[in-house]
What we know:
116 residues; alpha+beta; two-stranded antiparallel sheet
Amino acid sequence: MSPQRDDNETTTHRTIDCPICARPFTPVRRQAYCTPACKQVAWRRRIAPGTPAAIPPRRDRSNVVYQCGECDTRYLAQQWCHDCARPCRRLGPGGECGHCGELLTAEELLDNTLRT
């Protein structure tokens, strides 16, 4: 009777067929494939690319107004205050005022047009 957990004793005297190419071979220890090439083919089949992970579309920040919490400077499409070296707070979509060139959010523009 051979020991159950001794790979050298339990696997050296048998011949099995390779699951990829079906050629018979004598496995060494727990070898499952006859050659490294068949092992690579099996790995590629197991790790075959399925449907790629969905990558969410990038947000278009070209029309977003940001404001620094320290100096209250407003920026268009820039999330970082260059003067204070701090991140800015997102105010919302907007742009430059057509009259004065000041950066305003769309909400502020609508409030101003409704008041006048």
